[in-house]
UniProtKB/TrEMBL annotation:
The protein's name in its UniProt record: WSC domain-containing protein
Location(s), subcellular: Membrane
Topology of the protein relative to the lipid bilayer: Single-pass membrane protein
GO cellular-component term (any): plasma membrane
């Protein structure tokens, strides 16, 4: 609230001072390097919530002028901690003005001028009105890759083990550049993190767990309209190789791939037939991409199986039932929130973690729901 208030004050004072203001919407103009960059003082910043969303990448000898020319086309440029440069059309909502004393560090490229301080940004404005803001969203998938949501990540134990360089560097990172880089290196999983990092792998580390998308709250340096993970949080993508599991027959053939037969008899198997009340297996579905895909969650159960879940849903009059993450059971009359069947090899390999009620049976996975349907309840 305070930050909003301060920002609107700043905005109106900028408007009042601005010599040439253009209120019309314009496509980004990258030729205005000669813009009059005006100092706006010292502003707070932190690594979890960057005040300016784009990385300026001004090289090793940073000066304010160099950063501004890197930020040509953006409304704001800012230098920090002697050698960092950030650009953006907006300040984030939680920054606040600091005393000039907080921006005390000399620039790496000129020791007669200051380039911010620790968590403090020397801010400049190019004098033009900011364009209308675009909402940031999760890129649902591109080039055959599908979003698997947001996962935890740790420096000591990477969710995907191979950090890779993407074309034109961190400051240009987009989801598409990352998945294409991982795809051309032969990997089936890719992930973007901390605005500018790209990781590849064929499997996730054991410690990785699904997290709420709000932990993946950082825009990509190369595309401010989409998320590229967060601090210790990775937006994960998988490449779709397997065909859709359209029937119980094809679903059971999917679980019979070599990966499922390598280990001992304890490997849980997807239950695709023999269920009560007319329920049939509908494949593995992505959950939580835009919210829960079945609307009624039953209490977690220490004795869950697909059969127990479908019976619960049947008794309550729901035609859809879904099991997820060992112990969760969901019911619904329809699939909601844009639910879709997950067909990637990643999904098929990770959709049958052991049920709490029977470790030989599969009960979905993290954000992956094994879905069942019966038309026997449609009259209720
Ligand atoms: C700032 O970062 C924290 C931690 O990642 C996050 O919970 C919070 O929502 C962020 N705030 C904003 C305004 O982005
Ligand atoms: C940075 O400055 C140093 C010292 O002045 C100089 O030797 C070096 O070539 C400069 N590097 C670049 C990339 O300009
Ligand atoms: C930027 O992100 C949006 C949202 O994900 C996407 O539609 C668009 O294609 C992306 N642009 C580029 C150049 O990657
Ligand atoms: C990843 O998996 C794919 C498909 O199974 C395989 O072709 C590729 O060699 C693997 N890549 C690495 C680096 O293990
Ligand atoms: C389901 O998939 C299998 C193998 O991919 C295919 O042969 C079959 O025709 C499909 N069935 C339906 C109903 O689409
Ligand atoms: C329910 O599904 C079965 C099997 O697909 C079908 O034979 C039956 O006619 C269906 N009943 C209704 C009421 O749709």
């Amino acid at each position: 609230m305070l930050a909003h208030f301060v920002l609107s004050l700043l905005g109106s004072s900028l408007l009042a001072q601005g010599a040439v203001l253009n209120h019309k919407q314009q496509p980004r103009d990258t030729t205005d390097a000669a813009a009059q960059w005006a100092p706006q003082g010292c502003w707070s910043d932190n690594r979890h919530n960057r005040t300016l969303a784009a990385l300026g990448d001004a090289g090793t000898n940073v000066t304010n002028v160099k950063c501004q020319s890197r930020c040509a086309g953006y409304r704001y440029a800012g230098t920090e901690y002697s050698g960092e440069c950030y650009c953006g059309d907006y300040l984030n909502s939680i920054t606040s003005p600091l005393s000039d004393l907080a921006c005390y560090m000399t620039c790496t490229g000129d020791d007669t001028e200051t380039c911010g301080g620790p968590n403090a940004l020397s801010l400049y404005w190019d004098g033009q009105a900011a364009p209308a803001s675009t909402p940031i969203s999760v890129n649902a998938g591109v080039d055959g890759w599908t979003s698997q949501g947001c996962y935890t990540d740790q420096v000591g134990s990477r969710t995907l083990s191979n950090g890779v360089a993407t074309p034109r560097g961190a400051s240009s990172l987009t989801v598409q550049l990352c998945v294409d880089t991982c795809g051309s290196a032969g990997y089936t999983l890719a992930g973007v993190e901390y605005s500018g990092e790209c990781y590849c792998g064929n499997s996730t580390s054991t410690g990785a767990v699904a997290e709420d998308q709000s932990a993946c709250n950082m825009p990509c340096y190369g595309n401010g309209s989409e998320y590229c993970g967060g601090a210790n949080a990775i937006n994960l993508y998988s490449f779709a190789i397997a065909p859709p599991a359209n029937t119980s027959t094809s679903a059971s053939s999917a679980t019979a791939t070599p990966t499922a037969t390598q280990s001992t008899s304890a490997t849980p198997t997807m239950v695709t037939s023999g269920l009560p009340d007319g329920y049939t297996y509908q494949g593995c579905w992505a959950d939580l991409t835009n919210g829960r895909i079945l609307s009624v969650q039953q209490p977690d159960s220490a004795t869950l199986t697909p059969a127990s879940c479908v019976s619960t849903c049947y008794t309550a009059g729901y035609s859809y039932a879904g099991v997820e993450w060992s112990k969760q059971c969901f019911c619904g009359k329809a699939i909601v929130n844009g639910g879709y069947q997950a067909v990637s090899s990643y999904a098929l390999q990770n959709c049958h973690v052991a049920c709490t009620g029977d470790t030989t049976q599969g009960c979905g996975g993290s954000r992956l729901m094994a879905l069942y349907y019966s038309n026997a309840t449609t009259s209720s």
